[in-house]
Design goal:
The chain has 107 residues and is α/β, with parallel strands linked by helices. It is built from three helices and three strands; from the N terminus they run H-E-H-E-H-E. Strand 1, helix 2 and strand 2 form a beta-alpha-beta unit. The protein starts with 9 loop residues before the first helix and ends with a strand.
């Protein structure tokens, strides 16, 4: 790596990473890749971009749902079994295959 970006918090680091992913695709001439994939039940921070990839159902940011970008989510493995993990992997694979033209990154 030849570049480093320092930030002052986890929320800001997530926000910057999201903006870098969007800029990457824009630079490559694919500005339609604007969605992010995240695991449900996740928490990524309190900035608007980070809040958009937090759990959309159980997240503490539901009051902002009308202004947050709509993102894509897959279930989080909860059972601790291989079968549970395989289910999430299959869900992720299907989502990536079906919506790859609009996905900028997986968080």
């Amino acid at each position: 790596f030849t570049k480093v970006f320092f930030s002052d918090s986890g929320s800001v680091s997530v926000e910057v990473a999201m903006k870098m992913a969007l800029q990457y695709w824009f630079t490559l001439g694919q500005p339609s890749k604007t969605k992010f994939v995240s695991l449900s039940n996740g928490y990524h921070g309190d900035t608007l971009g980070a809040m958009s990839i937090c759990d959309p159902v159980n997240g503490m940011h539901s009051m902002f749902s009308g202004v947050l970008a709509k993102q894509l989510f897959v279930s989080t493995p909860t059972g601790g079994t291989e079968e549970d993990g395989v289910q999430t992997i299959n869900e992720m694979k299907q989502l990536l295959e079906e919506q790859h033209k609009e996905i900028a990154a997986v968080v």
